[in-house]
Amino acid sequence: LFLNQLQKDLEEVKELLTKATRKRLHDVLTTEKHKLELEIKNQPPTKLKADAGEEEKSSLGGYTVKINNYGWDQSDKFIKIYISLNGVQKLPAENVQVNFTERSFDLLVKNLNGKNYTMTFNNLLKPISIEGSSRKIKTDTVLVMCKKKREEKWDCLTQVEKESKEKEKAAYDTSDPSEGLMSLLKKMYAEGDDEMKRTINKAWVESREKQSKGDLPMDL
């Protein structure tokens, strides 16, 4: 739009130049003509591509979407990450790129239905082989194959997930199972609404009554 305005201004200046009879006016218009020509010349190339649709499509322009949903599986040798992307099999192979490091990978899918898609996995749980890892394009799915350096089972995908699970386990995993249950009940009670609190109180009273009745014969 801005480029069209500049071109119209230039055409008008040229027209005025043909009609100008005073030297001073002619000089001013000539200077303005040079300024406009220079400004048009310095416009970014993309602004000049009014109808170059195909060229625009092949660039990394447009929206970039971060992929958060995926599924994963493993064999003795590979970690397999499945990413669902409708129509991905119709793209040229070079539009689906994966870069691997020993503990991470980046996926970039270019120009799928007018958008670019990215996914990054950092701090993988264990090292992978860069040379042995690859990606496969299937119907509506990209499969990222991470080759394990050692043939062993992974409990999760990343170090962060492992730490999160360990913290969660530590919160409830005590030597006394009843203490773990108490911690859980206290947490539910603190975060629950009135109905939840009434339910926990009732369950607690009933539980204590059953315990006292059950313990009595043993004490005798």
TrEMBL record:
The keyword Signal does not apply. One of its GO terms (molecular function) is tubulin binding. It is found in: Cytoplasm; Nucleus. Signal peptide: none annotated. Keywords: Acetylation, Cytoplasm, Nucleus, Phosphoprotein, Ubl conjugation pathway. One of its GO terms (cellular component) is nucleus. Gene3D superfamilies: 2.60.40.790, UVR domain (4.10.860.10). Residues 65-158 form the CS domain. CDD domains: p23_CacyBP. GO terms for biological process: heart development. Residues 143-220 form the SGS domain. PANTHER family: CALCYCLIN-BINDING PROTEIN, CALICYLIN BINDING PROTEIN. May be involved in calcium-dependent ubiquitination and subsequent proteasomal degradation of target proteins. Probably serves as a molecular bridge in ubiquitin E3 complexes. Participates in the ubiquitin-mediated degradation of beta-catenin (CTNNB1). This is Calcyclin-binding protein. It comes from Nothoprocta pentlandii. The lineage of its organism: Eukaryota, Metazoa, Chordata, Craniata, Vertebrata.
